[in-house]
Amino acid sequence: MPMIKIDEAIALAEGRHEDPFSVLGWQKEGKSGRIAALVPGADKVWAIAPDGKKTELPHLTHGLFVGPWKGEKYRLRAKNAQATWDFDDPYSFGPVLGAIDEYLIGEGTHRHLWQVLGAHAITHEGLKGVHFAVWAPSAKRVSVVGNFNTWDGRRHQMRRRGATGVWELFIPGLMAGEVYKYEILGAEGNILPLKADPVGFGAEHPPQTASLVRELGLHIWGDGSWIAERESVNNIHAPVSIYEVHLGSWRRVWDEGGRPLSYHELATQLIDYVVDMGFTHIELLPITEHPFDGSWGYQPVGLYAPTIRHGRPEEFAALIDAAHQRGIGVILDWVPGHFPADDHGLRRFDGTALYEHMDPKEGFHQDWNTLIYNYGRREVKNYLLANALFWLEEYHLDGLRVDAVASMLYRDYSRRQGEWVPNQFGGRENLEAIEFLKAMNAQAYGGAPGIMTIAEESTAFPAVTQPVHTGGLGFGFKWNMGWMNDSLRYFSRDPIHRRWHHNELTFASSYTYSENFILPISHDEVVHGKGSMLGKMPGDGLSKFANLRAFYAFQWAHPGKKLLFMGQEFAQGREWAHAGALDWHLLDEPLHRGIQAMIRDLNHLYREMPALHWGDCDPAGFDWIEPDDAEASVYVFERRAPGAAPVVVAANLTPLDRTYRIGLPEGGTWCEIFNSDSGYYGGANWGNLGAIEAEDIATARRRVSAEVYLPPLAVVMFTPA
């Protein structure tokens, strides 16, 4: 009778065999062959031929059954005191991954990595099942475990694919919806904590941490026209007004235990609201799967899985489709800058520092207690590059806002001397991360035309938004953190002191066009004790609202695309809390409702007036008229666009009303098209009765001018009649 060496049999039974496919399944032996089946818990096992004839396989040891078999096709039947069950032997199937996939994975250039790694419901050699593949080069053994095998790592040990470090296994009979993890025998021979799939497309509801087999492509898209034309709404001359949203706390269903809205509910409620408010884009705080609610998604474990907190992957796709069919772009906040150290995640995935650096001076973020990807390792770089493309291709997202770029660019980020490792030239720049970001942008723009990428980058690193081929990082836009800090500092001051800090609002013009900027009032400004936007404003209740109206109006008039975090559009009174919902009841109060009405009007004005958006990233679209009147705290500037009517903006940022002469680019009648002191917005309704008349009086380097009324703490805008 065919036999297997006892030490080899015991190694298989104990999950220590590094090549189970060399023993299990049908193996040619002598003139025919033999079957070896590892079925722990079975008392008897039979091999069943296609014609129904069965042959019992003798029990060798430790749940390993071995017997002769002439043909190659068979099924197995197992029996114990509790049950009898039939199944197809995973070890009777050949590999799924092809030679080209192996080559590209090994080279680190597989652009569609998610199509070969992860868990895929497929038909292989005529049978339906699930193909699992995972990268774990230093592992001695990798097994798929789940409810389907009682989480027993002996039952589905995987096949190593040569030098790539990839392990794979096709398990017939499994379907989408299965819960699974990987059990890994590490490089030192120890069993590691069970690992979620790095390329898993779904996950259990937290606090559970297993991956779920999910099918991609279930949603039937209807956004072809949007995709074909979206470059026209994502370019530097287009109006871009972004509503930043944390899906879990935008609204909640309080009569159902305070649960967050589903993707299905968001596809109507959120999209209806964004359309009504006139925003052009939604930016989602990270929806990649994450174990800790309090990280807001910024500590992701499942980079390839939209969070189950709001529904299934196809329901997330339907949300994006719904936005597109209403003319709204969707940007994902993407986090390639760090990952958490949860045991079920990427940390020491195969028992070694696989995705991260071994040295904590390179691989650990002190600020966030998280790990840093090893961007210089080709497989890790490939993993992240493919992930960017995954969201753009599979979910039709219109852009990626890349979180914490500054922390990626510099090896000494938030570190003291001696706590970081210089690059190969002795410098502080992270050369590998820089090359990764360039490759990401080149691949994203090349693979998904019409999208945008956005850098959250707070330093003076050069050419962030210049093309890669000219030496830049290749981003489409960059958050203007300098403008944000200076303007918030200015507006938080008591108006009596603003004359001494006049340059805090003019300084940005010295670098406004050095990059393609977005002006962000993001979630970061209303957390961690920073209070709300309304709370930052000085004065009593009415003054706070007047200052906030002036701030927003100044933001919308200033060069740069716009971004506002949810709740700030109606002057949320308290700091944002991720575990609750926005204070929508505040809209019952006229002052809050007025702020909301003003943001709505600003968005529509911004979109309808080319002068207010065409030159956001082009110096031909802006000129100062009066930048120097610090004593009066007055600012006057012009916005313009080729072939379009100019807009003159005047801001009076003191509580004193003023009659003020402003220069104008041309004569005639000028209509007052916006006034932040309007009664519709909760103001005192002081203004210019709808229009002003230019006079032939030279003022502020303009040959004509007009005397205008500037309400206190207000911004007004004019355009030729």
TrEMBL record:
The active site is at residues 403, 456. It catalyses: Transfers a segment of a (1->4)-alpha-D-glucan chain to a primary hydroxy group in a similar glucan chain. Its EC number is 2.4.1.18. Residues 244-613 form the Glycosyl hydrolase family 13 catalytic domain. SUPFAM superfamilies: (Trans)glycosidases, E set domains, Glycosyl hydrolase domain. It comes from the Bacteria. Pathway: Glycan biosynthesis; glycogen biosynthesis. InterPro entries: A-amylase/branching_C, Branching_enzy, GH, GH13_cat_dom, GlgB, GlgB_N, GlgB_N_E_set_prok, Glyco_hydro_13_N. Keywords: Carbohydrate metabolism, Glycogen biosynthesis, Glycogen metabolism, Glycosyltransferase, Transferase. GO terms for molecular function: 1,4-alpha-glucan branching enzyme activity. Gene3D superfamilies: Glycosidases, Golgi alpha-mannosidase II, Immunoglobulins. It holds the Pfam family CBM_48. Catalyzes the formation of the alpha-1,6-glucosidic linkages in glycogen by scission of a 1,4-alpha-linked oligosaccharide from growing alpha-1,4-glucan chains and the subsequent attachment of the oligosaccharide to the alpha-1,6 position. Belongs to the glycosyl hydrolase 13 family. GlgB subfamily. Monomer. This is 1,4-alpha-glucan branching enzyme GlgB. The gene is glgB.
